[in-house]
Amino acid sequence: MNQRISKFAAAVAFLGLTAVSAGAHAADVDNGKALVASHNCAACHGANLNTPVSPEYPKLAGQFNDYIFFALRAYQVGAGNPLFGRNNAIMAAQVQGLSESDLHDIGAYVQSLPGDLVQKK
C-alpha cells in the first residue's frame, strides 16, 4: 500500500513540475514585433503603439508585459466569462488565432517600446 502511495505521489510531483515548466516561457521580443506588425496593431494604437489614432484606443508602448498578456488573453476568452473576459469584437478577432506563447511575446515586445505612460507616485 505504501509503495502505491509513493508511486502516486511521485507521479503527482512529476506532473506538477511538468505543468510549472510548461508555464515558464522565455518571451521572444522579435516574434512579438513580427506578430504586432502582421496583425496591424498600429492601425488603431498608432506608430510604435504610442500614438493611438483615436482617444478611445489606449497607448500600449511601455506597458507591463504581464498586463498585456492578461488583457489579450481576456479578449480571447471574451464576454462568455464575465469574471475574466473582455468584450471587444475587433480585439477578439485579432487575438483568436494566437497561442499563449504568442501573447507573452507580444507583451514582451510592447514592454520593450519606449512610451509615455506615467505611473502614479
From TrEMBL:
Gene3D superfamilies on file: Cytochrome c-like domain
> Example GO molecular function term?
metal ion binding
Signal peptide limits: 1-26
Q: Where does the Cytochrome c domain lie? A: 27-114
Which Pfam families has this protein been placed in? Cytochrom_C (PF00034)
UniProt keyword annotations, A-Z: Heme, Iron, Metal-binding, Signal
PANTHER family membership: CBB3-TYPE CYTOCHROME C OXIDASE SUBUNIT FIXP
Protein name, as recorded:
Cytochrome c4
Q: Which organism is it from?
A: Pararobbsia alpina
* Encoding gene, per UniProt annotation: cc4_1
